[in-house]
Amino acid sequence: MTQEELDALMNGDIDMDVGFEEAEEAADVSVPETSSEEASDDDHYNQIDPDKYRVSAMHSWPPPPPTDDNKMVHQLDDVTKESEQKASEIFDLIEGISNDLGDGEKNIKAIQSVVKSNVELFSTLSEKFPHIEAFKTQLAENKKISDELKDVLEMLQNGGDTIMNIMDIMQYQDIHRQKIERVINVMRALSTYMNHLFAGKIDDAKRVTSAVHIHGDTTTEDVVSSDDIEALLASFGKK
Description:
It contains six helices and no strands. It is mostly helical. The protein starts with a helix and ends with a helix.
């Protein structure tokens, strides 16, 4: 029985016997069955376990539960914070490698200076004492070392250039962070706009609760039963 029928009964506009017969006939009316697909969706939604929920691109329903792991802005804030922290750590490591390469270049150049002096010395000695093989041998060894030092120095310089290129590429991480922050700001602006759009003048705590069943609804759940009517009339009689 609907609220309107209950009001009519209380006003004496409906005969009790007729009213109960109509209520029984209404109870016999079959309720349209929900399709298996809709039922399965509802069951799946009601059985969601937030700890086991997994977002799937194959299904648009149900939406994820509003846990911290699924809050979009919360997740994006974590991404920007963690990415900035990790990028800072990477920059520190790269800077350390760059400094080591710079120190290596200085050491190689210092060694080259000594080897160059040795080459000049043994060249002079070999010219003055051509019969002494040790001078010729040392001259050849120092020239060989001089060539190897040039290769090592070139490798260190190439490594320094590569480090600079890596640091330039890492600058894009900051650009990506700014793009994510822009998305966050747009989402927060939309959230604020929707809150203002749906704002009301009455506090939600002071609002009247919505009716469970309204005339014209196809649902039969929570409709007033005959036992409820008898209990209501009995309570009026006690008063």
